[in-house]
Write a structure and sequence with these properties.
847 residues; 8-stranded parallel beta barrel; 6-stranded antiparallel β-sheet; 11 helices; 48 strands
């Protein structure tokens, strides 16, 4: 989105009054000549571009996947699509008063109760979705309808007005003003429709989206509904093509050359004579360079590529330590009038994979310390507010993670944006490995949309396509070759890979620029490196370690996995995989499966588990003990973590394993103040003791050169008597989008944390805020994500609070649930929701 400031520095003359009048842009301009479908276009004043958030004020109801009479009558007879404009549900007069009001993003799956089909039938679909009733066997909860009324002013005549969906799960049918507009048949790629011809100008308009989540794209929880943002974009008929503006940098010494390019589209019946002007804005917001393309003809109903080059001396490079971001403002000018403009974020950096020496960012060797992640979070499922993306990334960064893989689908723009801003590299993966029109469309959308993002260091065309590796190896090689070639055409600056579980010697692996290994450490990567020493290698998916936060016993009856050394049969502990990938010069590093626990695929158990236990942090982002292994060996700062907790009531006299993760030289362990010995810490390893339990404390003291640098203590606590609520931010924006993430933690009378507390809490909120989700990280909890109550799991729970558009003071209190809770919070948590200018959005029509 372009801000006024960008425009003021973009060199285009602006009138002060229009700056006041337009929220996103520019100034009104008269459209010369004839625009498509307009009788007297010369009279119409047009603002060059507005991008309006279309998230607020929707209505929602369930349809039905098998019974048309419960699906707004859709498909009841043969003739639904027979006459244009006849879909009554997308016209005035349709009664949606009984539909529920909501704002997007929305995931209806997370709201559904858990369901276990114990009739002995195939349970795999339920299991994959974390026991949410989605799929053709659950027609009543697998189809959702969204409806929205919106005004389009008369003054918009002549503009191109598009609706853009960042992602809908899954098959979407879009209707506007009674007309069928189009469909999208996957769950992750963005799609957009030009509505200009269908709209009523100076009148009310109606949009309806039927979303059918009966089919899935994956084998993990995918959510259901319009779970990403929606936009209404208004442009001049002469405008910049969608995701066509590219900035490609080459760096030589202290000089960067930026190749600038864009596509100007002319959706009118008259040719235009135009040029594109670029301004380059540095990380401080200063315009540091400018360029213009030659003036050229943009044919009627055609397009023209415009390009230019600029040079920057001593550019501020993007890196994981200093994620410097530049912006390019590209504007199209025709006959001295600006028609369209956009701001594109980019970074200047080099990223090189080398077969002998691994990965280099800006010429410096850097191991990829990565994690794979799905995209759902506790409380909200796949409808993750933007701010929660940054929160999730900051949790991963805290343990030294410098890269994420968007397994196994195209990410939401806000996840990419967070990586760009926070300096986390990215392996960006498409969902469908196919060169079919559908597969290519998904791939192209991903590459075009994100190719300016400096965080992305490699594209992935897919994950574990067994058939294309072996049985269909010839097709696999051809499909992969087409996909790799398309990536290169759209983005010649990056290498292309895939996540392969196998030897990588044939099929789809042949055309890859760089080879990714899933598991099989060290067997396949080592053998491959010996045989193909010129091909760079990294671990596209490693580890699959398993653990239940705060639990130290693997119990198949309780569906728990101990936090010391749990891992899937095909996987390995953090220590095992990192000792391999972290130590060989030719390995670029790798991506552990997974950063966060995720719903669905509840490995290693089934019902009543509803989420995976692969996460290094749980569904809420609360660290498990493995987190501290990574923190010790992925970060440079001194670090020390001792576990387990020391509340083993009933196990007095039993031997308990005490482990310490630390990157210090030596650790000494004290039990009730008495040393039981000191141990040298092996590089990339840990130290452990066996201790007979008696209540009291254990304390680890870590030293370097004989000097104690860090200590950490675990104390036996009493029962919980109070709850402390803390917020990741106590000041948020009153824009109806921002969130703060609260941590509820139990303490005993002496103020010690109670690591085993499991009390039910009730949350009360007053003021201009709402609780949009709760969680506790328990993989076996079937409590609601949406009710303002949640039990603690091993001492912790999470509450996600969202602002409204009204500023003010929000107060949250955690209280006793069911009469046996640990008491009230000592005092209410206060969050200030401060007045801000919200992003421009489509006004909500009050009913
Ligand atoms: C991999 C797969 C992941 C996940 C993981 C669990 O084979 O790529 O999506 O299922 O196994 O270990």
């Amino acid at each position: 989105m372009i801000t006024r400031r960008d425009l003021l520095t973009s060199g285009v003359a602006l009138s002060a009054s229009s700056l006041l009048a337009q929220s996103t842009l520019l100034r009104d301009i008269a459209l010369p000549g004839k625009a498509r479908g307009i009788s007297n276009p010369a009279d119409i004043a047009i603002a060059p571009r507005e991008q309006l958030l279309f998230d607020f004020g929707w209505k929602f109801t369930f349809g039905n996947g098998s019974d048309p009479s419960k699906d707004l009558g859709f498909g009841f007879g043969q003739s639904d699509f027979s006459k244009v404009g006849d879909f009554k549900f997308a016209k005035a007069g349709f009664d949606d008063s009984k539909w529920r009001s909501l704002d997007l993003p929305h995931d209806w799956a997370v709201e559904l109760p858990f369901e276990h089909d114990d009739k002995g039938s195939d349970d795999s679909q339920l299991r994959s979705h974390g026991y949410k009733p989605l799929g053709r066997r659950y027609p009543e909860t697998s189809v959702g309808w969204y409806r929205r009324e919106f005004d389009v002013p008369q003054s918009d005549q002549g503009r191109r007005i598009c609706v853009e969906f960042d992602g809908v799960f899954r098959d979407a049918l879009v209707f506007v003003n009674g007309c069928f507009v189009g469909r999208n048949n996957n769950g992750y790629a963005p799609f957009c429709f030009d509505l200009s011809d269908l709209l009523s100008y100076g009148a009310k308009n109606f949009i309806v989206v039927r979303v059918d989540a009966s089919f899935g794209d994956g084998w993990f929880y995918e959510g259901a509904g319009i779970y990403r943002h929606v936009w209404l974009t208004k442009t001049d008929p002469v405008h910049l093509g969608r995701w066509e503006t590219t900035v490609r940098s080459t760096v030589k010494g202290s000089l960067a050359t930026l190749a600038l390019s864009t596509l100007v589209q002319n959706v009118s019946r008259e040719a235009a004579n135009g040029k594109v002007i670029w301004k380059i804005v540095d990380p401080n917001g200063t315009t540091v360079a400018g360029a213009e393309s030659p003036r050229q003809l943009i044919p009627a109903d055609g397009s023209s590529t415009c390009s230019a080059t600029v040079k920057l001396t001593a550019p501020r490079l993007w890196s994981v330590d200093e994620p410097n971001l530049y912006h390019a403002i590209a504007s199209v000018e025709v006959d001295g009038t600006m028609r369209d403009a956009e701001r594109v974020k980019f970074g200047i950096r080099t990223a090189v994979f080398d077969a002998d020496k691994g990965f280099f960012l800006n010429g410096k060797s850097l191991k990829i310390r990565g994690t794979c992640n799905h995209h759902d979070h506790a409380g909200v499922g796949s409808a993750v507010p933007d701010r929660l993306q940054s929160f999730r990334l900051s949790v991963l960064r805290e343990m030294g993670c410098n890269a994420v893989r968007t397994s196994h689908n195209m990410p939401t723009p806000e996840w990419v944006d967070a990586c760009d801003r926070m300096g986390v590299m990215m392996m960006c993966e498409t969902r469908q490995m196919s060169s079919s029109p559908e597969g290519m469309q998904q791939l192209e959308a991903m590459v075009k949309r994100y190719r300016n993002s400096p965080s992305i260091i490699l594209w992935s065309i897919g994950n574990e396509e067994w058939l294309l590796q072996d049985e269909m190896a010839q097709q696999g090689a051809r499909i992969a070759a087409s996909m790799v070639q398309r990536c290169h055409e759209l983005d010649p600056t990056r290498v292309v890979s895939a996540a392969v579980n196998g030897d990588n010697e044939k099929g789809l692996s042949e055309p890859l620029d760089i080879v990714g290994f899933n598991y099989n450490t060290p067997k396949y990567p080592e053998a491959f490196h010996k045989k193909y020493p010129r091909r760079p290698i990294y671990g596209s998916e490693t580890s699959s370690a398993l653990s239940t936060r705060g639990v130290y016993v693997t119990d198949k009856l309780r569906n728990t996995v101990n936090c010391y050394d749990g891992a899937a049969d095909w996987g390995e502990t953090p220590e095992a995989w990192w000792k391999f990938y972290g130590t060989r010069e030719w390995e670029a590093g790798g991506f552990a499966w997974t950063g966060f626990d995720y719903r669905g695929e509840p490995t290693p158990y089934g019902w009543p588990s509803i989420n995976s236990q692969f996460g290094i942090v749980d569904m809420c982002g609360f660290p498990k003990d493995y987190f501290f292994y990574y923190k010790a060996w992925w970060r440079n700062e001194p670090s020390l973590h001792v576990f387990p907790h020391w509340n083993w009531h009933g196990r007095e006299g039993d031997e308990i394993s005490v482990w310490v993760y630390s990157n210090l030289d030596e650790v000494e362990l004290f039990v009730n103040g008495k040393s039981i010995g000191s141990q040298k810490v092996p590089r990339l390893g840990h130290v452990e003791w066996k201790v007979r339990y008696e209540p009291g404390s254990i304390e680890a003291r870590g030293s370097e050169d004989g000097k104690v640098i860090l200590t950490e203590k675990r104390e036996t606590s009493g029962p919980p008597v109070s709850i402390r609520l803390t917020a990741d931010r106590t000041e948020i924006n009153a824009d109806g989008e921002d969130v703060t993430i609260l941590r509820a933690e139990a303490f005993d009378r002496e103020g010690r944390p109670v690591p085993t507390a499991d009390n039910m809490l009730e949350f009360t909120i007053t003021g201009p805020g709402k609780i949009i989700g709760v969680g506790n990280g328990d993989p076996n909890s079937q409590e609601s994500d949406k009710q303002p109550r949640r039990s603690l799991f091993n001492g912790l729970a999470q509450v996600i609070v969202q602002s409204t558009k009204t500023p003010g003071e929000i107060q949250v209190e955690a209280g006793r649930g069911g009469g046996q809770g640990p008491g009230r919070t000592q005092r209410n948590l206060v969050i200030i929701s401060k007045q801000v200018e919200s992003r421009p959005s489509v006004p909500v029509i009050q009913q």
